[in-house]
Design goal:
Layout: E1 4-5, H1 8-26, H2 30-42, E2 46-47, H3 50-89, H4 95-98, H5 101-118, H6 123-131, E3 141-145, H7 153-165, E4 171-177, H8 181-185, H9 187-197, E5 209-218, E6 221-232, E7 239-244, E8 247-251, H10 252-260, E9 267-276
Parallel strand pairs: 3-9
Antiparallel strand pairs: 1-2, 4-5, 5-6, 6-9, 7-8
């Protein structure tokens, strides 16, 4: 029986899990911290024999997965309860003074966790959320590239109108994209609006986007450069439902307070893409 170091990826995963445990303890999410502690034990970067190493880790992962399936509602409820407690704490005057350094660390970590969890399901929202943790001026423009903004019917309508007016010459059109209350209630368009305007997925009033369409000639012909700019940041009077099952609720006021205290940094997001320019009215 001997102790042997395993590969670097195990050390990296182990380090991330340890940080997650520390954050969950700070945030007073003790059950979730216990689950992550179990994961730390499973991926501990040492083993005694290759055979036992593989079997024990696979068995441990199976048990943790089973436990998570049956108890994830409790873990989510624990986080929701803590967020609700902090929201109630900051309802009085001088709300920033009510938040301790420990509370701010917990909320800062939850912003990062939210971005990471959202990333696989809604990449634009996840990226925008994570970038809020990077220091920068409020007027700083961060450029993102994605074709997903073309899925919005509102933006497609502007592109179609641009193509109809296009006359084989360089031209630029600026528009403000509005989402009506009815469109915000339609799930598909609501998600497009939310991902282009903020990290929110609610039916509340969403800020407008500034759309710029530019016809440019290249060696392969005419192309249409598309730019959608909007301010990214948490808002004071907004409650966000990130997931419905299990329900994950964010009181944005808490993270808005972190913005005021320079823990999080609002910025301007510029989503860009390029498509061939034709006059057919289709992308």
């Amino acid at each position: 029986m001997y102790i042997k170091l395993v590969s670097l990826p195990f050390w990296l995963v182990f380090s991330v899990l340890v940080l997650a445990v520390l954050w969950l303890l700070v945030f007073e999410a003790f059950y979730s911290a216990l689950l992550f502690t179990g994961l730390c034990v499973i991926v501990l970067p040492y083993h005694f024999s290759q055979h036992k190493h593989i079997l024990s880790r696979l068995l441990g992962l199976f048990l943790m997965f089973t436990l998570l399936v049956f108890t994830h509602h409790y873990a989510v409820g624990e986080v929701n309860t803590r967020v609700r407690q902090l929201a109630q704490l900051t309802e009085s005057s001088a709300p920033l003074s009510k938040l301790t350094w420990r509370d701010k660390v917990g909320l800062y970590g939850l912003n990062i966790a939210t971005g990471l969890i959202t990333l696989p399901f809604a990449p634009k929202i996840g990226m925008e959320t994570l970038w809020l943790a990077i220091p920068g001026d409020e007027s700083k423009v961060r450029v993102f590239r994605s074709d997903k903004l073309l899925d919005s019917k509102n933006i497609q309508a502007e592109i179609t109108a641009f193509k109809r007016a296009f006359q084989q010459r360089a031209m630029t059109v600026n528009r403000t994209i509005h989402w009506s209350p009815r469109e915000r209630l339609v799930k598909s368009e609501k998600h497009k609006a939310a991902s282009l305007t903020s990290s929110s997925l609610t039916n509340s009033v969403l800020p407008n986007c500034h759309l710029t369409l530019t016809a440019q000639q290249s060696h392969q012909g005419w192309v249409l450069n598309i730019s959608v700019r909007t301010k990214v940041g948490y808002r004071e009077h907004l409650q966000t439902v990130l997931f419905s099952r299990p329900q994950v609720i964010m009181q944005e006021r808490l993270w808005w307070l972190l913005q005021q205290d320079k823990w999080l940094y609002p910025y301007i997001a510029d989503w860009q893409t390029q498509i061939p320019l034709t006059t057919e009215g289709k992308t």
